[in-house]
Amino acid sequence: MVTLVAFVFMTGLCASLPLFMDVSLKDFHTWLALYGVIFFGSMSIHSWKSIRNNWSIQEDNQASRGPLAIFQSIWAMLALAALWLLARYVLP
After folding, report:
1. In this model, does residue 67 exceed pLDDT 80?
2. Range of the domain at 50
3. 27-58: per-residue pLDDT in tens?
4. Closest to 68 (Cα-Cα) out of 57, 76, 79, 80
5. How many domains does the structure of the chain reveal?
6. Are 30 and 17 in contact (CB under 8 A)?
7. Total-model pTM
8. Which carries the bigger pLDDT value, residue 8 or residue 31?
9. Which of 14, 27, 63, 73 has its CA 20 to 30 A from that of 34?
10. Rounded Cα gap, residues 23 and 19, in angstroms
11. Spatial contact of 77 and 27, defined as CB atoms under 8 Å apart
């Protein structure tokens, strides 16, 4: 439960970046925060499913190598690709 709360907190912190600083497409911190929302959000989903389904450590390890892990990896790869493309073409 502590892990879930930490992931949700980090997701909220990354998502609230526009409240604390000026957000610009040319700013690397914006893209890093976007990646943080995607990464910590997907990890929050994994933690929530683990708690809801009352998984043991072995079941959690199995799930982290199954379809949920593929889903999280795809999100992470898409976020990294978007960061790379936008940094390459939007930043000077």
Report:
1. no
2. 2-18+25-89
3. 777 778 888 888 888 888 888 888 898 988 88
4. 76
5. 1
6. yes
7. 0.68
8. 8
9. 63
10. 9
11. no
Q: Which two tokens stand for residue 48?
A: 């929530």
The whole-chain average pLDDT of the chain stands at 81
- Return the pLDDT at 92: 60
DSSP string, the chain: -HHHHHHHHHHHHHHTHHHHS---TT-HHHHHHHHHHHHHHHHHHHHHHHHHTT--HHHHHHHTTSHHHHHHHHHHHHHHHHHHHHHHHT--
Compute the CA torsion angle 50, 55, 59, 61 (nearest 10 deg): 40
Phi-psi region of 54 (alpha: psi -120 to 50; beta: other; left: phi over 0): left
Residues 46/64, Cβ–Cβ less than 8 Å: yes
CA–CA separation, 19 and 10 (whole Å): 15
User: Tokens representing 27?
Assistant: 């700013």
